[in-house]
């Protein structure tokens, strides 16, 4: 009998209450790339009938966190990943389902090499938020660190 490990999406859905609250859907996750979807839910809407800015921020930050777990999950015994800065730009009105596509901004091996040197590596994750017609409604950059365990 073999046990299957939970996917990153299943793990984050189980451990991060806000992911469950917003019903975020993990479409794809890898060490360099993650795609999450926020369903169209009027209870999380704004004054123009689209998703609230806070929901879109959470969607994008969650996509960045999925990459962090995929890329650096094997380092958790020696480092704590923490977001230290996030900046979001809203470009167009979002309506309906929105999708966040995140990309790691530095090579995994480079970040781990800095950790091996006893440093506190910092790395960006860039996220594009799009609506169903493909238009980019927002862009976000989240700066993460791996803080070595003491």
UniProtKB/TrEMBL annotation:
Cited Pfam families: DUF4442 (PF14539)
Q: Which organism is it from?
A: Streptomyces bingchenggensis (strain BCW-1)
**Entries under InterPro entries matching the protein:** DUF4442, HotDog_dom_sf
The protein's superkingdom reads Bacteria
Record-given protein name? DUF4442 domain-containing protein
């Amino acid at each position: 009998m073999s046990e299957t490990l939970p996917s990153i999406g299943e793990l984050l859905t189980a451990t991060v209450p806000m992911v469950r609250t917003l019903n975020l859907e993990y479409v794809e996750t890898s060490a360099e790339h993650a795609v999450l979807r926020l369903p169209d839910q009027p209870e999380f809407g704004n004054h123009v009938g689209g998703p609230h800015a806070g929901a879109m921020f959470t969607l994008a930050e969650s996509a960045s966190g999925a990459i962090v777990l995929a890329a650096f999950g094997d380092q958790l015994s020696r480092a704590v990943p923490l977001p230290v800065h996030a900046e979001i730009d809203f470009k167009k009105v979002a309506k309906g389902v929105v999708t966040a596509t995140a990309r790691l901004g530095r090579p995994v091996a480079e970040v781990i090499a800095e950790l091996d040197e006893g440093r506190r590596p910092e790395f960006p994750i860039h996220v594009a938020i799009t609506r169903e017609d493909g238009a980019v409604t927002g862009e976000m950059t989240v700066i993460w660190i791996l803080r070595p365990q003491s």
